[in-house]
Amino acid sequence: MRIAVLVSGNGSNLQALIDAQHDKQLSGQIVGVLSNKADAYALRRAEDANIATAVISHQNFPNRESFDVAMHQQLLAWQVDLVILAGFMRILTPNFVSQWQGKMLNIHPSLLPFYKGMNTHQRVLNTGDRLHGCTVHFVTAELDAGQSIAQSVIQVSLQDTAESLAQRVHQLEHFIYPQVAQWLCNGQLTWENGQAYFNQKLLEKPIQFAQF
Ligand code: GRF
What would the pLDDT profile of 18-64 be if each residue is shown by its tens digit? Predict the structure, then answer.
């Protein structure tokens, strides 16, 4: 599997994927890292790992459609099989998403379907939830609404702040994201007719990783 990772920022999840590939926990090959921001630290991580990079700034395009077409062309040039969104902060157009159906993953810092969108950690604290975590899901046109594949849960403590939650959830992310990517690479996870299958069985609810 030839993998492209789309980033906008720090890229700690990208690093986890690079490390997993290096440690042979990920059998796919990350062939390119695409950022919409030239100053994303994730690009440095890719360069340090000798991975091709591309910067396609959304600001250079008149609309989302033309930006997505440019991204799509880059992915085709890299001959990508699997697209992994790792802190990529742009909303994708339905046309782009439909071309990567069942081949594009995202990780979101909440227990979806709760807390789609931004500022998830603060919103969890505001509500007083006792459980929080992250979700890996297939990407569909609706934001953070594609079928969830795997989740990992933490207990929120009274001492937690948005920062501490972000840190704790990141740790979970770095564990589950390479694992789910590997399931797609080795064929344990598949997508047929708009449905996820795990070990050839319909995936009815997200796979739960052990609590930290
Ligand atoms: C992660 O929290 C991820 O869940 C969200 O964006 C953040 C990216 O962090 N989609 P990083 O750039 O991988 O460190």
Answer: 999 999 999 999 999 999 999 999 999 999 999 999 999 999 999 99
Question: In terms of domains, do 57 and 126 share one?
Answer: no
In this prediction the pTM is 0.97
Ligand 1 site, residue 108, Cβ cutoff 6 A: yes
Is residue 89 domain-shared with residue 163, that is, in the same domain?
no
Residue to probe by mutation, ligand 1, list 173, 174, 175, 176, most atoms within 8 Å of CB: 173
187 Rama sector, left if φ>0, alpha if ψ -120 to 50, beta otherwise? left
Number of domains in the chain: 2
Check which CATH number belongs to the domain holding 134 and give it. 3.40.50.170
Catalytic residue ranges: 108
Does ligand 1 come within 6 angstroms of the Cβ of 9? Answer: yes
